[in-house]
């Protein structure tokens, strides 16, 4: 299970974290707290998106 | 082939989301202080209220995505046979609208928060009447099945099959 999902989860977490930070910066916010929170939120969302990606691959 | 019933996990996810959404609707002012600061151009304020509203909302989003994955993968049981076509259409639309709200409302909330956008915040506020209407209709339908049609639909969301 874990061996199956980690290779999907990790890149997804990275992509969504970067997307969260990029969105926040694009909207003109540079305070570190908000950027860190955006990155963390992206990683947490990857938890929900991973099962969807695994389905899509089946 | 559609499964005979919802799995235990699908049932658990269905019921766990209910109190989470209720918390964010009832205690909607938890995030107010923090949001006012963002609106006035200040740095994002992560006080207990903001963390709670965001944490609960992100949990709803993650659990809804997980559930959607199960629905697309394992599938859900067919609607009870014998229901008129219009009712089947309404049930499908209603369920997909609930998914759309469980995903859309927190996503717009996140975009409002991290982008500091008042327009998106106003859009996010619409989540309240949307959830109330959808869930009220959903519960009314469940009660209708239970009391009028007596087709045991409620049991499908209680016992795994
Ligand atoms: C299912 C999840 C959620 C529900 C049901 C929900 C519900 C609500 C409600 C009812 C309000 C008050 C609206 C008003 O003042 O009239 C609100 C405000 C707000 N929510 Fe959420 N929320 C959810 C998730 C989120 C998430 C994940 C975020 C991300 C940060 C968020 C950010 C906000 C913000 C910034 C406000 C203040 C907007 C304003 O008062 O104008 N929400 N939310
Ligand atoms: C007291 C509240 C609730 C009751 C009595 C209830 C009852 C039910 C029942 C009996 C079913 C099974 C329908 C079938 O077998 O075809 C169902 C399915 C469903 N419910 Fe609820 N429900 C409630 C709250 C909610 C809430 C708050 C949400 C989400 C916002 C929700 C979303 C769904 C969805 C999307 C389905 C379709 C099946 C699935 O994809 O999981 N329900 N509900």
TrEMBL record, chain A:
Protein name per UniProt: CTP synthetase
Regions that span the bilayer: 34-54
Keywords in alphabetical order: Membrane, Transmembrane, Transmembrane helix
Automatic annotation (TrEMBL), chain B:
InterPro entries linked to this entry: Cyt_b561_bac/Ni-Hgenase, Cytochrome_b561_oxidase, Di-haem_cyt_TM
Regions crossing the membrane: 12-31, 51-70, 96-115, 130-149
Alphabetized UniProt keyword annotations: Cell membrane, Electron transport, Heme, Iron, Membrane, Metal-binding, Transmembrane, Transmembrane helix, Transport
Domain annotation Cytochrome b561 bacterial/Ni-hydrogenase: ranges: 6-158
Protein localization: Cell membrane
The protein's required cofactors: heme b
Main location class: membrane
Nucleus in keyword set: no
Topology of the protein relative to the lipid bilayer: Multi-pass membrane protein
Family statement: Belongs to the cytochrome b561 family.
Listed name of the protein: Cytochrome b/b6 domain-containing protein
Organismal lineage: Bacteria, Pseudomonadati, Pseudomonadota, Alphaproteobacteria, Rhodobacterales
């Amino acid at each position: 299970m874990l061996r199956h999902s980690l290779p999907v989860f990790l890149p997804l977490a990275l992509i969504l974290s970067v997307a969260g930070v990029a969105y926040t910066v694009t909207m003109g916010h540079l305070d570190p707290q908000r950027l860190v929170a955006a990155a963390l939120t992206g990683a947490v969302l990857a938890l929900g998106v991973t099962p969807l990606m695994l389905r899509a691959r089946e | 082939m559609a499964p005979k019933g919802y799995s235990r996990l699908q049932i658990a996810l269905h019921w766990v989301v209910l109190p989470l959404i209720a918390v964010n609707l009832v205690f909607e002012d938890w995030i107010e202080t923090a949001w006012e600061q963002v609106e006035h151009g200040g740095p994002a304020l992560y006080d207990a209220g903001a963390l709670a509203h965001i944490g609960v909302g992100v949990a709803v989003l993650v659990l809804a995505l997980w559930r959607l994955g199960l629905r697309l993968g394992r599938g859900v049981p067919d609607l009870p046979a014998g229901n008129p076509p219009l009712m089947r259409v309404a049930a499908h639309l209603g369920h997909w609208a609930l998914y759309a709200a469980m995903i859309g409302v927190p996503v717009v909330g996140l975009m409002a928060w991290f982008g500091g956008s008042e327009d998106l915040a106003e859009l996010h506020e619409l989540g309240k009447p949307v959830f109330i209407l959808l869930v009220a209709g959903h519960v009314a339908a469940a009660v209708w099945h239970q009391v009028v049609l007596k087709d045991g639909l409620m049991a499908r969301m209680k016992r795994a099959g």
